[in-house]
Design goal:
Radius of gyration: 32 Å
Shape: elongated
Distance between the termini: 111 Å
Strand content: 15-25%
CATH superfamily of the largest domain: P-loop containing nucleotide triphosphate hydrolases
Structural class: alpha/beta
Helix content: 25-40%
CATH class of the largest domain: Alpha Beta
CATH architecture of the largest domain: 3-Layer(aba) Sandwich
Number of helices: 16
Number of domains: 3
Strand order of the largest sheet: 10-9-12-13-14-11-15
Number of strands: 15
Length: about 450
Amino acid sequence: MSDLSQDEAEAFVRAVVQLASMADRALPQRSSPLTRRLSEHLGGVGADVSSTSMSVPVVERVNVQLALNAYADSADRNEVIGLQSDIGNYGGASLAGLVTGSWHGPGEAARQYIAVDIDVDETIDCLRSGLVLTDVDGTPVVALVYVSEKYRPELIVEVVGATQTAADEFLARLRELMHEHNAFRRKVVAFTFGMHGEFGLSFVHLPHVERDDVVLAPGELEAIEAHSMGITEHAEGLRAAGQHVKRGLLLYGPPGTGKTHTISYLTGRMQERTTIILTGGAVAAVGQAGTIARSLQPATIVIEDVDLIAMDRQLPGGEHNALLFQLLNEMDGLAEDADVLFVLTTNQVEMLEPALAARPGRIDQAIEISLPDAEARRRLVELYTNQPLPDDAAGLIERLEGVAPAFIKELARRAQLAGLRGNESSSSDLVVALDAMLEHATPVLRRTLAGPVASPDQR
C-alpha cells in the first residue's frame, strides 16, 4: 500500500466498499418472525418503505386508546401484537425499520395494558406498547404505539401502510377519533406535574352544591349566573348578532367568603362544559389550559388566587411576570365565537394588573363576594347546622358580624361535636362553640369582629 499513489489508494478503497455492498446484497437478509409477519400483512414492502408518525404528551394515552378502540369497531381487520414494554428505551425505535428488518428491536411479547383514568372512579385499559394490524378501506396498515423516554416522556404513534396514502389517512382518522372521543370533554380536570416537568391531568370530584346552599348578598348570585350560564344559553343568538361569547368573570373578596363554593355550584349547573381548574403551582399551566379549552369548548378555565400570576406590573417584580403575559395572550387569542369562560378568584383585588382586571374583553364582570350580613349569617348557621334557629338567636348572629362563611361552617361542626359529647344537641352548643373559637381566634380575625372577644365573662 505504501507504493500506491493517493489516487490509486482512493480507487482501492472505493472498490472495497463497492465489493462489500455487492456481497451484502447477495447474502440473504436476516428477518425476524415479527418482520415476516408484518411484511406479510402489508403484502410485501420494499427497502424504501416510509412511515408517518405523531407524538403527543403521555396524558393523551387515554385518548389514543379510545381512538384505537373506536377505529377497531369499524375496521374489517384489527389485531394487536404485544411488544416488550421498555421499547422506548431502545435507540432508534422505528416501525419502518422493523417492517424491513433493518431494525432489530424488542420481540413480540404478551400484550400488557395499564389502567388509566377516564373519570373520577372509572378507568380504561391502555396498551403499554405494541403493534396494531388493521386496514384503511381494505388497504393494510400497521401502527406502532409506545412511550419514548428520550428527552421527556411522550407517546409515539408511527404508521406504515401498503401505500403512503393509507398510512396518512389512518393517522388523520386517529386524530379525528381522539378529538371525538376525548376523555376530558365535559369533565372537571386539574393539572398535575411529573418530576421531569411533564404535565398530566387528573379528574376532580367537586361537591354538589344546590342553589339554596349558595348564600351571597342580594343580586350577587344572579349576576354571576347571568354572565356564566346566561351567555351560554343565548350563545347562538349572540353569534348570529355578531357578538362574542368568550368572557371573563372575577370573583373577589376576603378569604372564606364562598368563592370556591360558588364555583362548585356553577360547575354543577354547567355539566355540558369542560372545566379546567388551575390552583397553586398549576397556574403555570395556563397555556396548556387554554389549548385544551379551545379544543373542548364549551369550556371553563378556573384560576384560583389569580394574583399569583397577574400581579400589577407597577409592583416590585411585576414587570418580569411572564405568566401574566401568557394569561393575557390566552384570553386575547380566543376566537370571538369561542365559548370559553375564564373564572378568576382573588383575595387581593387591589394587587391585580389593571390590563387584566379593568379591561372589558378580558374581565367583563367583577363580583365582590363580601362578608355576610345579618340575614346571610342566619341563613348560613341554619344551612350548616341543618336546623332552624330559635327567635332569641339575634345575639348570636350579632356576635358573628365580621366572620366569613368558612368560620360559620366550622362553628356548626364544633357545635355538633359538643352535642354528640353531651348526648344531645341544642342551640346553646353554638354559643359554647363560639366562645371557644373566639377565645382562640387569630389577631387578624379579632380585629375584624364587631364585639369584644377576649373571654366569655367579659361580654
